[in-house]
Amino acid sequence: MTEAVEAAARAHLLRLDHQEDLCFALWYPSRGASRSTALIERLVLPRPKERNVHGNASFDPAFLERALAEAAAAGAGLALLHSHPLGRGWQGMSPDDIAAEQGNAGAVLGATNLPFVGLTLAGDGAWSARFWERTAPRTYPGQWCGTVRVMGDRLAMHYMDRLAPPPLSTKAQVRTVSAWGDECQADLTRLRIGVIGNGSVGGFIAESAVRTGFEDVTLIDFDRVEELNLDRLNYATRTAIGHLKVDALAEYLRPRATAARCQIDPVAMAVYEEAAFRKALDCDVLFSCVDRPWGRHVLNLIAYAHLIPVIDGGIRVRRNRLGKLAAADWRAHTATIGRPCLQCLGQYDPGLVQTEREGNLDDPRYIEGLPDDHPLKARENVFAFSMACASQQMLQMLALTIAPLDQPNPGAQLYHFVGGFMEKPVFGHCGSECLFPSLIARGDACGVTVTGKRPLPRAADQSVAA
C-alpha cells in the first residue's frame, strides 16, 4: 500500500481507547512470475452503526454489502483490515478473526472474482496479511503473506519471519553490518533486487548487491557480451565474448556473494517481454540500467501502478568539435510515489516508445538519420563514469530503504565531471498532465499494456520499408 493509505488506516485502526477496530479496503492484483501481490488502493471506512467496537470489533452485514458493492463497481478485490492495538510484530489470528475472514471468503469471491484478503495492524505499526484462496468447493484455507510493503518517500517492509526468515550475518559482512547494525542488515538483505540492464552500470550494481549480502538478485537483459564491451564490463573477460550478459554476470557474482545463501536468477529477455515483466514484478526494488525508451516506460509503469520503486540512472558524454571531452554527466534518482516519474524527469521521450516497438531504433538507417547530438546516438562511456553512476544509484537505494536519520529522499541528483560539481537536487511531483499518478496501485488492472515482442534487428543494408 502507499504511505497515504497506510496513514489513513493507522489513524482509524489505532484508537486512543486501545480497542480493536476495523475497516474494508479495495485492492488490485499484481501478478509476478512467482509472487502475487494485493495492492491496497483505497479504504472503505465504516459509517455510523456499521460496526461494533467492544474490545473486539465486528462489522454489520450492511457494511460488508456496501464494501462488496464498491469493490464490484471498481473491478477490485476486497480486503478486511483490523487492529491488535496491544500486539507487537507479525500477528496471528484469534478464532473470531478467522471466522470473520474465512467465513466471508466465498461471498467476496462470488462478488469480485478475487480472493478475500485480510490484514492486521499491531500496536507497534507492524502489518501482517493473508489471502483466503478457494482450493475446493466451500474450502478457503488461509495463505500467509511473506511480506507487507508500504511505499512512499521511503520503502518500509514488514516480514513474516517464518516465510521470509532474517538472514544471519556472515563473517564476510562484519564491516558492512557495523555501518547500520544487525536488524537493519536483516531487513535490507531480505529485499529481492532486480537489475534491469546488465551493461557497465548494471554490472557494478549487481556486484555491490551481492557483496552487501542481498540474498535474491534477478538479472534481466537479452544482450550478449561483445569485444567492444570489455573496457566497461566489470564481470567480463575475452572468454565471455558471445555469451549472454546475464549468464556471464551470474557466473561472476556467485563466488563474490557474502550471504550464506544467495540466489541469482538470470533472465535472458528484455523487460518489456511478458515473461521478464512478470519476473520484475517479483522484486521489491528495481534498478533501471537501460538506455532505451521502451524499457524505461515499462519500469515507470511498474513504479506507480505496481508500487515497486525504480532506482534509475544514466550517463551522457559529449565531445567538442576538436574531439576533446567537453562534458560528462551522470544522474541518479528514484521513481516512486510522491516523486517525479522518469518521463517527467526527462529520462525518456514517450514518443519514441512506439518507434522502438516498431524496430526503428534497431534500424541503422533510422539512427544515422538522427542529429549528431541526439541521445540515441550517444554511446560514449568510460569505466570510471559507470562506476560513479552505479554508486549514486546504490546510495539512492540505501537512502530509500534505510532512511538514515529519517532522510529517505536525497532528490534527483545530477553530477558534472567537467567542472566537478553536483547540481542542487530536484524534488517535487509529476506534472499535472502526467498519466502515471492516476495509475497508482492499480496493478494489472491499470489498463495500460506495455509489454510486447522484441523487434528483430535489421541489417544495415535493409530498407526501412523491408
Describe this structure as you would to a colleague:
By secondary structure, this protein is of the alpha/beta class. 28% of the residues lie in helices and 23% in strands. It contains 13 helices and 18 strands. The chain has helices spanning 3-13, 61-74, 95-102, 105-112, 174-180, 182-189, 200-212, 245-253, 274-280, 293-305, 351-357, 364-368, 383-402, and strands at 22-31, 36-44, 51-54, 56-59, 77-84, 116-122, 127-132, 142-144, 147-151, 155-159, 192-196, 216-220, 263-267, 285-288, 310-319, 325-335, 413-416, 421-422. It has an 8-stranded mixed β-sheet, sandwiched between helices. A 6-stranded mixed β-sheet has the order 2-1-5-6-7-8. A hairpin with a 1-residue loop joins strand 3 and strand 4. The chain is globular and about 80 Å long. It starts with a helix and ends in a 44-residue tail after the last strand. Mean pLDDT is 94; it is low at 460-466.
Largest sheet: 8 strands, mixed
SS-based class: alpha/beta
Helix coverage percent of residues? 25-40%
For the record, give the distance between the C-alpha atoms at the N and C termini, rounded to a whole number. Answer: 47 Å
Q: Which ranges are low-confidence, i.e. pLDDT below 50, for 5 or more consecutive residues? A: 460-466
Task: Using the alpha-carbon principal axes, give the shape.
Answer: globular
Radius of gyration: 24 Å
